[in-house]
Amino acid sequence: MRIATWNVNSLKVRLPHVLAWLEQQKPDVLCLQESKTEDVNFPAQAIMDAGYLPLFSGQKTYNGVALLSRAAGGAGTDVTAGIPGFDDPQKRVLAATYGDTRVICIYVPNGESVESDKYQYKLRWLAALAEWLRAELQKYPKLALLGDYNIAPDDRDVYDPKAWAGKVLCSDAERSALSSLLALGLTDSFRQFDQPERSFTWWDYRMNGFKRKLGMRIDHILLSAPLAANCTACAVDVEPRKLERPSDHAPVFADITN
DNA sequence: ATGGCTGCTTTGAGCAGA
């Protein structure tokens, strides 16, 4: 199966790009973040017309996550929105089971800056996520955690690591929180394979960030051991970032046999 | 040089993103 993640920065604006990408890449499950769409306005019909079944948890203006799965593979089951026990009005988590694979779509808080209250919220949020995942992994040995983590794991994932040292997305506490997720038994599927230098998933709209290759790798696919063992590829597809009115993020996909 | 783009919002200046 092919699983993928894409922060679309408004599904309303990016719907044509998403439909084209589904047609071209034919993922079995695509996780979306920043749909910025209330559920009542979710473009479910257009998604279904493209041969996909949508699950969504959204709100006006900010956040919003969705899971799109190939209709032939059936709808997801055991759907969970949010982190159980973590009271949060922000719509950032959606999980569903496809066959025997648990797919969890996450939109980690940005954090704004290490001095911000939003940074503390980010760290609390990540701690709650890790606690919940510990239980999820017990229930679902085949688990994939995909999304916008808003964390660059390593200096090679940052265009200018010296300038970003200690800053939000790169701070020790954030990288430590990511390590805690990996310590649960998850693998960064992207680093299972040789990758081009300067592989990124987000580029600032300003200052021609994309053309100048000034980006960060902050969107990730983490796989539990049984899935990582059967993962045959993981890559960033930068093509949608070249389109008119692109999202500032590019999609990432992973291929898993069986 | 704290800007710069983009999307959104009881429509227009301000927030948020990263």
Q: Give the helices and strands as they follow along the chain.
A: EHEHEEEEEHEHHEEEEHEE
Number of strands: 14
**Number of helices in the DSSP assignment:** 6
- State the secondary-structure class: alpha+beta
**Globular, elongated, flat, extended or rod-shaped: what is the shape?**
globular
Distance between the termini: 7 Å
Average of pLDDT: 97
Characterization of this structure:
The strands form three sheets. This protein has a six-stranded mixed β-sheet. Strands 5-6-7-8-12-9 form a six-stranded mixed β-sheet. It has helices at residues 11-25, 44-49, 117-139, 161-164, 172-183, 225-229, and strands spanning 2-7, 29-33, 52-57, 65-70, 77-81, 93-98, 101-107, 143-148, 186-188, 202-203, 215-216, 219-224, 231-236, 252-256. By secondary structure, it is of the alpha+beta class. It is built from six helices and 14 strands. It starts with a strand and ends with a strand. It binds one DNA strand of 18 nucleotides through loops.
